[in-house]
Amino acid sequence: MKRILINKLNNYLNQEVKIEGWIHRIRVLKSITFLILRDRTGLVQCVIDNNLIKPDDMKLESVISIIGKVKESNNKLNNFEIEVINFEIISKCKEELPIEINKEDLNINLVTMLNNRVLSLRHEKINAIFKVQNVIVNGFREYLISEGFTEIFTPKLVAEGAEGGTEVFEVKYFENKAYLAQSPQFYKQMMVLSGFERVFEVGHVYRAEQHDTNRHLNEYVSMDLEFGFIENEEDIMNLEEELLKFIINKLEKETQIYLKLLNIELPKINGSIPRIKFSEAIDILRKEYNKTNLDKDLDPEGEKLICEYAKEKLDSDFIFVTHYPRSKRPMYTMPCGENETHSFDLLFRGIEITTGGQRIHDYEMLINNIKYKGLCPKNYESYTEVFKYGVPTHGGLAIGLERIVIKILGLENVREATLITRDRHRLIP
């Protein structure tokens, strides 16, 4: 007999069906037992004659198979229930559960949640986070494919870090030394130059940073894109605006059940996202908030205050900050004059979720900028060599998946939106 998912049972009223899943809740009466079964699509009430079961069978989170008849019913879950004919244990829960899955809210601290990650993901509200995350990724893919982008898959073992610096994980690579990729940046550019023109990737990246904050991970998912024949960074920001509108609209259409469960109202983008230069942001922080300790970059407090300004003064949850100082941007970033760059960050509800900008397409300028950053051009020859053979103007961006998820869903920590966390202290599960 073919298994039927719970969200399809309303099509089988008065018919015999087979359902399988986890025991979510149990209420034993004198002659019958009410059992709530859970599968990936929802919950259903099952009514079992106690003669069909043994008391020892009734363990929360055991996996079971039921054959029964779908009957009309007025219960809190559905307008039907299952009248059980046959009951089979597939896998019995053998130990007391370390966390309670069947409560409306999990009510445990983050460490306990992550230590029991597989179990915590069974909770409907925790599970819903990743259903929303999945739709965001699908929206990213769908929009870019519709705009002529090709999805690529780049190496995560590399000979040199794309961002420079020492924040890379070193790994033994046979008789050589290799690193885990900080970014697909070099390969994105190479694929633009190879003739694809427009490429994107959703993949893991690795940062050997010592941070231990609610916004940093050592392994996270980056949604990257790169495309050629642009005028400047404005084209990239324009694309991201339309991309975000598409994703938000897709969430509105496809995730209402999860948004309602999590009590979330989606952000709106009315018209264009506001854009201010980095120097303007520094002035705003000084004049509006008396914050005078920044000149080269925005710290977390600065990002939060600029987002407050955007919400209060510009009625926007999002704001682009452009023209970051040359000293703070990677070697491949197109300079704008002596001190600025054709670059931007997108801030959203208090945190930077995107970094992007125009890239250098001239070989000599790229070599000079590598030297300007205090790096050795010889170490990057496999990357720079292709710039000798005809390169379009190009640029791109990277969106941190976990960061955009926590801000859309009002979560406090990127680890809540990470399936399996890798941070300064966590290498298991």
How would you portray this structure in words?
- Helix content is 29%, strand content 27%.
- With 429 residues, it is of the alpha+beta class.
- It has an 8-stranded mixed β-sheet with strand order 6-10-11-18-17-16-13-12, sandwiched between helices. It has a 5-stranded mixed barrel with strand order 1-2-3-5-4.
- Helix 3 crosses helix 5, helix 3 (124-146) crosses helix 6 (256-262) and helix 7 packs across helix 8.
- The protein starts with 15 loop residues before the first strand and ends in a 20-residue tail after the last helix.
- The model has no long low-confidence stretch (mean pLDDT 95).
Global morphology:
elongated
Structural class: alpha+beta
How far apart the termini lie comes to 36 Å
H and E order: EEEEEHHHEEEEHEEHHEHHEEEEEHHEH
Largest sheet: 8 strands, mixed
The DSSP helix count reads 11
The proportion of residues in beta strands is 25-35%
- Rg estimate, integer Å: 26 Å
Helix content: 25-40%
Average pLDDT figure: 95
Strand order of the largest sheet: 6-10-11-18-17-16-13-12
Low-confidence parts, pLDDT < 50 over ≥5 residues?
Answer: none
- Secondary structure tally: strands: 18
